[in-house]
Specification:
BirA Bifunctional Protein, domain 2, single chain, 3-stranded antiparallel sheet, 2 domains, Helix Hairpins, 428 residues, 14 helices, alpha+beta
Amino acid sequence: MIDIKLIRENKKLVKENIKKKFQDEKLPLVDEIFDLDIEVRDAKLKGDNLRSEKNKLSSEIGNLMKNGEKAKAEEIKKKIGEMDAQIKILEISESKKNELIKEKMLLIPNIIADSVPIGKDDSENVELEKFGDPVVPNYEIPYHADIAISLDGLDKEGAGRTTGEGFYFLKGNIARLHSALLTYARDFMIDKGFTYVLPPFMIRSNVVNGVMSFTEKEAMMYKIEGEDLYLIGTSEHSMVGRFMNQIIKEEEFPITLTSYSPCFRKEGGAHGLEERGLYRVHQFEKEEMIVVCKKEDGMDWYNKMWSYTVEFFRSLNVPVRTLECCSGDLADLKEKSVDIEAWSPRQKAYYEVGSCSIMGDAQARRLGIRYKSSEGTKYPCTLNNTVVATPRGLIAVLENNYNEDGLVNVPEVLRPYMGGTEKLVPKK
């Protein structure tokens, strides 16, 4: 959520930002909020003036009664009663309009960074840098699900019977490799100085509304029937929600956290061959990193955070690239975002395995997260980034470490978590 001062002082900037995000249907909201804000401030001024006048009149009543001017005192009391009624009407009007302003403000997208490229959707995202050579071996890389099945590690049919499409059972060494990835990711981030946290996997609606836009909420979140609870789509949701309505001590910054969680998403969209495997699923697991810091330190942390994900995947022998998200691909609360994409030698293309985003103070404003500085009370900056999400990370490891003979090399950094296993061998 942006500061309403921006609408008061620079409507043009807010409207230009909306146009950059190709959300022209939201343009009328800016004028509506502007007009409502004037009405609210006018009502508040009238109310304050009435209260001031009421206090003056109230102070006169005692003197009038002492002087025996009872009739005049009663007249003033009547006037004060009428003023109380007017004040009440103004307070109700002010409250209703403030709620309406808040509802509309939640729909206004955050101001994007000047460096964000302008584009309508993810097809116009801009490649930044490649890390590692995207090798295509001179032998065929099987479909990732077939690799897992050859290693006796995947049961999609059983999951279909128990839960339905978009779920899976992992078994044996594939399940072990999956867990190794997450445990290594945890230790990798601890070594970077981040504090490990296990968060709740369900959150209340006020947290949901604080950490994401309504569009994202409808597209992503599973609601628990009959409860004010949602299954998290990422641990960022509960991790940032933890600070709701809190005043953080300035000396605690930066707060650097890494968290494990299962993630639950509706995941509508494409369902081609690759998606039918483990690529697009309704339940997965993830190691996340979250930073809460001063706004002026946000971009430094943003660059550190995405570089950690690049470093992580390169340690697994997986080539990656970074992709700058264009304006139309940014969720409403984001100032700037970069996708980290892994190389798929099978598809001969990159695919998303993580995303690093700086939110500015948008989440903090929605959730009431503040800190006190020498300059007064401020809203901090929040950032989030994927360390690894499985099974997409698992797919990248399987494809990039697959041998012509069907064996899969276990990346050296994962071997301590696999009992020293160096290769995964297909069943005979």
